[in-house]
Batch of 2 targets.
Target 1
Amino acid sequence: MAITITINGKPRAFDVPAEMPLLWLLRDVAQMTGTKFGCAAGLCGACSVLVDGERAFSCQTPAGDAAGKSVTTIEGLAEQPLGKALTTAWDETDVVQCGYCQPGQIVAAAALLKANPRPDDAAIDAGMSGNICRCGTYPRIRAAIKRAAAINAGGKA
Amino acid sequence: MDLTLNASRREMLAGSALLGGALLVPLTACAATGSPGKGGLAANTWLAVTPDGKIALALPKTEMGQGILTAITMIAAEELAVAPEAVQVTIAEGDAARFAPLSQGTGGSTSIREVWQPLREAAAKARAALLQAAATQWKAPVADCVAHDGAVLHKPSGKVLTFAALVPVAAAAPLPKDAPLLSPTEFKVLGKAQRRLDGAAKARGTAEYGIDVIVPGMKFAAIAECPIFGGKLAGLDEAAAKAVPGVDAVIRDDDALMIVAGNTWAARQALIAADPKWDAPPAAKGAQQAAIVGTVAAGLNQPGTVAINADPKVALPAATRTITAEYHQSFLAHATMEPSNCVAQVKDGACEIWTGSQIPSDAREAAAKALGFPLEKVTFHNRLMGGGFGRRLEPDMVVRAVGLARRVPWPVKLTWAREQDMTHDFFRPAYADRFTVGVDAAGRPVSWTHKIAGSSIMARLMGPAFKGVDEDVVDGLNAPLYDGFPRTVTFQQVESSVPTGWWRGVGPLRTAFAVECMVDELANAANIDPIGYRLQLTSDPRARAVLEAVRKQSGWDDKRTPNSGLGVAVIHNWDTYMAAVADVSVGADRQIRINRVTVAVDCGQVVNPSGIRAQIDSGVIFGGSAALWGEITIAGGAVEQSNFHDYRVMRMAECPVIETMIIDSHEKPGGMGEPPCAVIGPALANALHALTGKRVRSLPLQKGFEALA
């Protein structure tokens, strides 16, 4: 059964079981490896994508549930204005270390800023605590989200 | 002189050309034009100026997040007078011979300390060769020539020759035997915050980690390893596994089951369907947490081997009081964000491997040994790592993957599920430490006996060749900060079925926790301020400076706010001095919370201050997670934890404010990856005592605190 999902603006058809998690569809079938495997249990956020603009753990999202929907991965987000604001802020704050969790962090931050364009520390804590970073980039992620919010609002960081 | 950078063509073809956009170009780009870099200027076997005047650097160490790619590139850029962004740096293949006498092994905060001098010397020689080539062309004194921005400038006339123009002449002459190094006053790159060179690609999802490698025709595999250490695969439902659509092969090892399929999910589903059964000898099945840690603690009652002998020449007054304390530290998993994985292909008597290793030379050798292949038949393409922390010093995932790949006709990517990764780690060993310290009337030590019991990682790694006392066990105790009293340290090796390995902070992670908590207890017993007490015990000016710095910055001498306890620790390891003050509180739910951590570091000459601050954030959070919550426990011979729901790690909302002060220094550069991870644990335990009056002597602290409360 072909499942059609719009990925980063392009409709694509996949012949996969409906219950296959979107994570593996993206990584192994579509060969888009920016979305990371971390836990396959919805615990770490490394696999975060946007589904119709909302943050989703792709490891917990069956491909069938994404059928007919619009999925934005880090590769697509990085080309959008909000994604560019975030990646620029990430660069300027020198956030990444190993970097493995960062695509998921940036996707989560995009969802946060869509819902709350000027998040305070408490909102950042609430919006970002579904994402684990083992390298401990949290202080710089916090600063980068504030910088991205400023960039996205048209102001200077 | 030919360019002797010998990265293979295959690296270029299969590799990560898009790793960092324009920033990171594989060295093999210069090999693509014909004979490998013919006409380039080789500074050594891993640093060259290419015929087009670019600096080409094969990274002699591995990048797992610690920022070494950026730091090493900065060192090369400084001596060769280019911007770090202009250096073409690539992640090197596993190749011990190419980098000898340097080891590709990346751990123990050794990278900058080992690479600093040879890299600067090689780069300075290449610079001198370029300057000489320009001077010859201009018939000018070499002293009138300076390297600047990829070119040589003739100062009196303002004439410029690019490196590209000079390389043919410079490469035709022998490299100078030695050349002057830049002095710190000339540094333009070192000591200035440099944005990471791999940051942009990582943030945009285009950086390639081992787990992201895709080889044409590749299949995907999942693995279940025997949950019981020392057990075997006893049975499976092979028909059910093969009935899962997309399954290509079911592969059995003695102690593991692997399924090869068209995608990872199908392989994982087939593993579930296979429902593997395991068996183990009664002793293996019977291993239980309480018995294991009990046996470790009982090791303290053995005589042990003397590691450090009290100096009999030191004559001190008799003790007026003896203080004893015993500390216990838990098993820990590494839980790297990128689970264990490896891509391998075995074909026509040769093997290619793609994964991220902290020691790719050894991983390559382990694969060759496992396959019975000559070393030159094994190519190891190293990749960025989604965390290492010591886990990727072990080649077990590589050995497993090549064993799989030799039995199937495809290249195969083997990915461990998080649950498999967490339960088949090489764990930070559980340790026990007992101190018996005699103090004089002023509360100062006059005798010090420290007994240690636990696993020896070196004994496992070295096998029968191992002799004497494991250096890792006493790392941090041989050159103690606190002087003026004799000490005796003994070690009793105690092993269990739990495999143990290097974990970030290594030996001093354990010794600093024990010693810095004990010193705090002595300060408390003497009723002396813990920082003041440490200052009394150490005459080392660099140690005193970091202590004074955190004392000031943390507000140590201010009136304490309610529900705030401050604790201190100081270490000197890896050529780095570091002190930390942790500020903790305890909630109504009895949960320990870290509010703020103040760190002062003297790591000698600073390479990248942004990297240093990042490593301190990192070590405080990674080490703080472990100290508060980290614990792997064993039941029925198997690890009980499996994923992030029961192996708690710090999240954004739990992250403290972290303030870092870097002491200005031109001493030789020290390590930065390990120290903050080692210093934070005792600072937290000491803060908890300051706040609650409860001395938690076992890790993890939250569990130990609840047991005392």
Target 2
Amino acid sequence: MLTSLLRGADRALLRDVAALAAGIFVAAISFGAIASAQGVPWWQSSAMSALVFAGASQFATMGIMTTGGGLLAGVAAGLILNLRHVPYGMAVGGIYWTSLRSKLVGTHLLLDQTTAFALAAGDDRRRARTAFWTVGLTLFVTWNIGTVVGALAGQFIADPETLGLDAALPAILLALVIPGLRDKRTLAAGIVGSGVALGTSLFLPAGLPVLLALLGLVVMWRGGTKEAR
Amino acid sequence: MTMLAAIFALAVGTYLIRLSGPLLRKRMTLSAYTEKVVKAGATVVLLALTVTSTFLVEGSWAGWALPAGVLVGGALAWKRAPLAVVVVAAAATTALLRLVGVA
């Protein structure tokens, strides 16, 4: 009974990871294709995917570098986009903070999607750990193969926007945060935070608005003191 | 050559950023309540990332097709549909709207 339940849960996880991997594969092909179209050799875009492994920052840095924006501007834009991994690591870092090897590899696999899957597992630490590693390793392989495919053959592949695939990745993240948002105060913090992020997106560089969304957490702090009283 | 320097700098910087979260966490004594707030913090950042990348593309209005697709996907996820259904429905909605000429 218990084993069949666990096997069922694992199948559900694998099915979800497959859907995510398909979306990431398309994004990776776009990345490789855009880099090649800008004259970047395939081994450089592939090295970037393996060593950086953070999609949005790769697009940003590559875009600025290939349009003559300069080293400093390119790297700074990418790093600012990646600052959101600090709150991610604080929330789910405990999952892989075990052996040295697990720490070193787990750190490289800290992503929007590994964080979201681990959070969606709730308080079940075993499920969170399984989800983090399954998603992280699958996406690492998918992202890197997709980059090479896109870099070498990207011009033969249909435009992802025509297929509506740019809606896939935000929809997946939304689906994964929904369990967390069933908690009313997290939902309130999320709504306030998203409002702050949208408003500040009009004048701040990409990456900072989503961090300012953390201001939404004041909603929880006030709720907390009320409870304490 | 500058591209290689950029890749290397971004890789090292990103790794250090990823490393800092768990290290900060170790320095704090987390009560059950702060643990809850820290987890909510990551959820809030993920939601804000979703919302901004749904409504804005490179800092300006994304058009109707993209948010419509993401919202359809989100509604299905709220109804506990599997992720594959969410993805296909979101992409299909956005693609169909674009096909009939809705940006």
